[in-house]
Amino acid sequence: AGSDRESGGSGVALDVTVQALDLADLKSVEAAARDIEASLKPEQSKIDFLVLNAGIMALPKRELTAQGFEMQIGVNHFGHQHLFAQLEGLVNKPGCRTVVLSSTAHSFGSLDCDDLHFSDGRAYTPWGAYGQSKAANLVFAKAVSERLKGTGASCFSVHPGVIQTNLWREPQGPAFLSRLPVLKNLNKLLPRLISDKSIEQGAATTLYACLAPGIPASYPGAYLSDCNVAEVKVAELKDPNLPARLWEATESQIAVALAK
Fold it and tell me: Has 130 been annotated as catalytic?
């Protein structure tokens, strides 16, 4: 970790601090939250924008986090919920916004609060697990929005678009395809073929969620795409009881894992 003053090309000095954080290890999440809180200046009583955007995608095999969670939901959801919980006292102030990066891939898998880690009978698939983690992001944002009611703070989930980044570093498709010479470069070509946004364009909806006036009061907990409120098309994710159920299941499993 460290800090520096940079202009960012704007000519205006920016005070930037880089914080180490491993979302696959809840102890690292807690240490990072303590460092972030300690780094705030005396006059800083809140975090204006908390953007939870780190993630991994479509791991070919089921892997586990340091606390034994399935890696994709462990990093993409559990790590972020624990970070929010550690910093909640700094983001539940008037005007603060929390933004959670979900994805249109939230429709790729089902969100099963009774077997989030594919350890009790569900078959693991790379895209099914990724889809579940993105569904969890969307529902988690609704849970946070409920927690923030009456505080003047807000929370949204965002589909940034399909962007050419190293999120695509894992091989896509069945393993045997990577052994076929004609398809060995599929993983490099696929993002170029289906991506619809540059990195700058992909950041636009996140910035919209942070800065656009009006949306906190009119659309609490909304799912946003292309700088607008978008429809959640998966019926099960509209269940009004699901946000609280996911929050409670996640907090309970985190508590058990950290108590070991």
Answer: yes
